[in-house]
Write a structure and sequence with these properties.
The chain is an all-alpha fold. It contains ten helices and no strands. α2 packs across α3, α4 runs parallel beside α7 and α7 packs across α8. The longest helix is centred in the first third of the chain and has 26 residues. The radius of gyration is 19 Å and the shape is elongated. The N and C termini lie far apart (about 55 Å). About 30% of the residues are buried.
Length: about 200
């Protein structure tokens, strides 16, 4: 990519990030083009579909989540690694309204621009889960896809004004259901959350 084209691409992507932060996954491509000061054709030349745009926006976050799983595998006990990574995953799906549905759809479509990044995150979570299961600290009937489903559910909760204030408490409820013997830190958090909810 030529320097001027790269500068234009970076500018459009930065504007898109702002629009998507404001309006979520339903952000209008036409609105992004208008705010970036380019024609819709120029935007579509960089990002032919909504999914290619979201791949560019989310790939860095998804790659970081995958990398975080690899780091936790070697630096933390299995149960703590799993819940720590799960917490970061929930924070990620809360970063853009509507991203949960977009990622769930991409995971089912190998042709999606987001498929590879989503698949890598799924595999990373599954490895952490299997590691905790092998030690007997995570329930044995769960699969990696269940982690993503629960992550998505908490993301949906965060998008609802009526439920969002209960987000941390509900995270602790789900975390304690994933683990068979919650670690000391998670047990303290769960007790603190329970006390605060009374």
């Amino acid at each position: 990519m030529r320097a001027d084209a790269k500068k234009n691409y970076d500018h459009v992507l930065a504007v898109a990030r702002g629009v998507v932060t404001e309006h979520g996954a339903d952000a209008s491509m036409r609105d992004i083009a208008r705010r970036a000061g380019v024609g819709l054709a120029t935007l579509l030349r960089h990002f032919p579909t909504r999914e290619t745009l979201f791949d560019a926006l989310l790939r860095e976050n998804l790659d970081a989540l995958t990398q975080k799983a690899a780091e936790l595998e070697t630096s933390a006990p299995p149960d703590e690694a799993l819940i720590s990574w799960f917490r970061e995953g929930v924070a990620f799906v809360l970063s853009y309204s509507g991203v949960v549905a977009l990622m769930a759809s991409a995971h089912e479509d190998p042709e999606s621009a987001l498929f590879a990044s989503c698949a890598a995150v799924h595999e990373a979570g599954a490895r952490l889960l299997q590691r905790a299961q092998a030690e007997g600290t995570a329930r044995a009937d769960m699969q990696g896809i269940d982690l993503f489903a629960l992550m998505s559910a908490l993301g949906w909760v965060g998008d609802q004004a009526a439920f969002a204030p209960r987000g941390d408490y509900l995270f602790d409820v789900i975390a304690s259901a994933i683990l068979t013997t919650p670690s000391g830190n998670e047990t303290k958090k769960a007790k603190k959350a329970k006390k605060a909810s009374k």
